[in-house]
Specification:
- It is a single chain.
- The chain has three helices and twelve strands, in the order E-E-E-E-E-E-H-E-E-H-E-E-E-E-H.
- It is of the alpha+beta class.
- The protein folds into three domains: 62 residues, no CATH class; 43 residues, no CATH class; 68 residues, no CATH class.
- The strands form five sheets. The chain has a three-stranded antiparallel β-sheet with strand order 1-6-5. Strands 2-3-4 form a three-stranded antiparallel β-sheet, with no helix packed on it. Strands 7-8 form a two-stranded antiparallel sheet.
- The radius of gyration is 29 Å and the shape is flat.
Length: 197
């Protein structure tokens, strides 16, 4: 996409400053202002966004990959860069689910292949005859007893869990340990103080 695209948006008046991006494919002006009409527009092509320049609203390039400023989680993506990160299939040609990931998305066949690869690698870490249930007790993080993958959950709770890597189910029990801390109140009593009394 040409980085110098600049298309006037005559429908958006210059005095309208209340504009939000409603997803990467819609711009909304005055959505929260009852005194002005609400305007919803779709950019003329993917990867463009609205920007206020020199007293007017314009469609300009928003695709971070086109601009060379991508940090991996891009909001605006043009058709050219809207491709599976593994097989490079354009999103318009993908059938089925897409999986968002850093750098764009992964199509379902590529995600399935990756999941199988990760599962195989994880299961290879734990030999079938090398299982000891004590290896999975009292750990600082959750460790799957099927494949030894470890993680810290967002909000853990006791109960049945399913491993994101191997798909194995296991029972999670959260264990708490009690520790004690003390601090001196007033002056610390020492042997020297006792002998001076």
């Amino acid at each position: 996409m040409d980085k110098n695209i600049k298309i006037l948006i005559p429908e958006a008046l210059p005095e309208w400053t209340d504009r939000i991006h409603n997803g990467p494919m819609k711009e909304v002006w005055n959505g929260d202002n009852d005194n002005l009409p609400t305007l919803e527009l779709t950019p003329p092509q993917k990867g463009l966004k609205s920007e206020f320049i020199d007293g007017a609203w314009y469609w300009v390039v928003g695709c971070e990959k086109c601009l060379g400023s991508s940090k991996g989680w891009d909001y605006f993506v043009c058709d050219e860069h809207n491709i599976c990160i593994d097989c490079k299939t354009n999103r318009s040609e993908v059938i089925g689910t897409v999986w968002g990931t850093k750098g764009g998305f992964r199509c379902d066949p590529c995600q399935t292949a990756l999941s199988l690869k990760l599962k195989r690698e994880a299961l290879e870490k734990v030999a079938s005859d090398d299982y000891d249930e004590w290896d999975y007790k009292q750990n600082d993080e959750i460790v799957c007893p099927h494949c030894a993958s470890s993680y810290e959950p967002d909000e853990p709770s006791d109960g049945k869990e399913t491993c994101d890597i191997c798909g194995g189910e296991y029972e999670l029990e959260i264990e708490y340990s009690v520790t004690y801390s003390t601090t001196v109140v007033g002056e610390r009593i020492t042997l020297d103080l006792l002998e001076n009394e």
